[in-house]
Write a structure and sequence with these properties.
heterodimer, A: 322 residues, 5-stranded parallel β-sheet, two-stranded antiparallel sheet, 12 helices, 9 strands, globular, B: 173 residues, alpha/beta, Rossmann fold
């Protein structure tokens, strides 16, 4: 009997939610485990980096990497896994577009380190000690990975074959992706493995979205009684649905919370934040600059809201003067 | 949206010249620019005019893309309020402009690098004046050099340069 196809999972700058989503396959994971050999999965299996290094190049059928790339070690692992894998998949929003960790691209490396190791209210560090990439202790050289100046998406570091979007991707999409890989009928390289239409198209509240949408006030979800049947935009609540790819089965909407955009844009859109900006500002019901400004003041942090998962992959990539 | 930087030679040379990308509405500002031309009014040649059918056609992505490819400033010219050929297009632009300005500010791009101006078909002089003012303002702000900055940011990845070149291909529209 020929060897089963080999599959690997790895995590970079991530929260662990993507790993959870693999476990969320529940009993389906048995089906997957029967069809493939998992050769590397640090969160669950005891294989080490040297085991991967010992594998022949291209011997892994597919590797799914989650998390954005922030340190030199994550970069090295991305290159290593790229070399060893026939197919590399960016798994989840962070690997796909930088994700929440790339919101840190609004700050310089120095600002981040100073805050985290000196200024944060929970930190006591009178000598202002910071982690060093190299340190001598008792005659032993200790090393740590370098902290890079920017958080990056996986494809800003190595070539990526496919993307599984979401924070995290749904078990359904993961299962579909694995079955597609095993079928050997591969979609074109660079495909995002989710439907290529906006979430509004699949939204259960679609019927209540007015054709002549008018927004006279932006309301924040935690200060608002949200009608569980009505389109969020019609209620003045910022919803990323118009600028976000579907495939999530509208889970947030079903939980009466607006879309925050984790699936990223459709293939026709280059910059998700600019697209939602357009969709939200155009229908404002004001014509005078002062009135427009007043309504827009209901969105206190446009960058954090519009680029919540995609700042690294946005056209400007970061705050340009940091 | 081409990937190739449009101003590499400009931003890397010592004698930097500002580059302003201008999106002009076909029905008013573009016609006014034509009028300025046939009337032999001179204006700074640092501007690259792109004709659009309405200022409302200017997707905020166009503005960001212009900056990302080396523009130092972006100028949008549309019909005066109430005069839009498509009734509402210029109002939509105005609303987006206000929000886009905030996003640009938060991402470190100075306010003076983006300007929206209403210019009617008869106002050839206003085209020349607006372009000259914009070029001077951008000259005072100095180079934005995003194409160069992007390269500098990625220098920390230099050891893997070959692979890094493939970035951004996949989701580019």
């Amino acid at each position: 009997m020929p060897d089963k196809p080999k599959v690997a999972f790895y995590w970079c700058a991530s929260c662990g939610g993507c790993e959870e989503s693999i476990v969320d396959l529940a009993e389906d994971i048995l089906e997957v485990a029967q069809a493939v050999d998992i050769v590397f999965w640090p969160v669950a299996l005891d294989f080490k980096r040297k085991d991967v290094e010992a594998m022949p190049d291209g011997s892994i059928l597919a590797t799914m990497v989650n998390g954005s790339i922030r340190t030199s070690e994550q970069e090295e692992m991305a290159h290593l896994l790229r070399r060893k894998s026939q197919i590399l998949i960016a798994y989840g929003s962070c690997a796909h577009m930088g994700g929440v960790p790339s919101l840190a691209n609004q700050f310089s490396r120095e600002q981040i380190l100073r805050y985290v190791y000196e200024e944060a209210p929970t930190v006591v560090n009178e000598q202002k000690v910071r982690p060093q990439p190299r340190h001598q202790y008792d005659g032993t050289a200790l090393t740590l990975p370098e902290f890079r100046g920017l958080a990056r998406s996986l494809d800003q570091v190595v070539e990526v074959d496919y993307y599984l979007p979401g924070c995290p991707p749904t078990p359904k999409l993961l299962k579909q992706a694995v079955l597609t890989l095993l079928s050997g009928e591969l979609p074109p390289r660079g495909t995002v493995l989710a439907p290529d239409v906006a979430l509004c198209d699949q939204c259960p509240r679609k019927e209540t979205k007015p054709t002549d949408l008018q927004i006279s006030e932006f309301k924040r979800p935690h200060w608002t009684q949200i009608d569980p049947e009505k389109c969020f935009l019609a209620q003045g609540v910022v919803c990323m649905g118009p600028a976000t790819r579907s495939g999530c089965e509208a889970q947030c909407i079903q939980g009466n919370m607006p879309c925050t955009g984790c699936f990223g844009p459709t293939s026709r859109v280059r910059d998700q934040g600019a697209k939602i900006l357009s969709a939200l500002a155009s229908p404002i019901s004001a014509r005078e600059p002062e009135e427009i400004e007043k309504i827009l003041s209901g969105i206190p942090d446009p960058v954090g809201t519009f680029y919540r998962y995609s700042l690294a992959k946005s056209l400007l990539r970061a705050k340009v003067t940091r | 949206m081409e990937d190739k930087p449009i101003t590499d030679q400009l931003v890397t040379s010592a004698d930097w010249e500002p580059l302003v990308v201008a999106f002009f509405c076909n029905w008013c500002t573009y016609t006014a620019a034509d009028l300025a031309g046939v009337s032999r009014m001179g204006y700074d040649h640092n501007v690259r005019v792109i004709r659009v059918m309405c200022s409302g056609r200017v997707d905020p992505q166009f503005v960001l893309d212009a900056f990302a490819h080396g523009a130092d400033g972006v100028l949008i010219g549309g019909c005066h309020p109430g005069d839009c050929h498509y009734v509402e297009g210029n109002y939509k632009t105005l609303r987006r402009y206000h929000l886009l300005k905030r996003v640009l500010r938060d991402l470190g791009i100075e306010e003076g690098r983006l300007r929206l101006e209403w210019i009617a078909a008869s106002e050839g002089e206003k085209v020349a004046k607006t372009i000259n003012e914009m070029v001077e303002q951008v000259r005072a702000l100095g180079p934005l050099r995003l194409t160069r900055r992007f390269k500098e940011w990625d220098a920390e990845l230099a050891s893997h340069e070959a692979e890094a070149q493939s970035e951004e291909v996949a989701t580019h529209a």
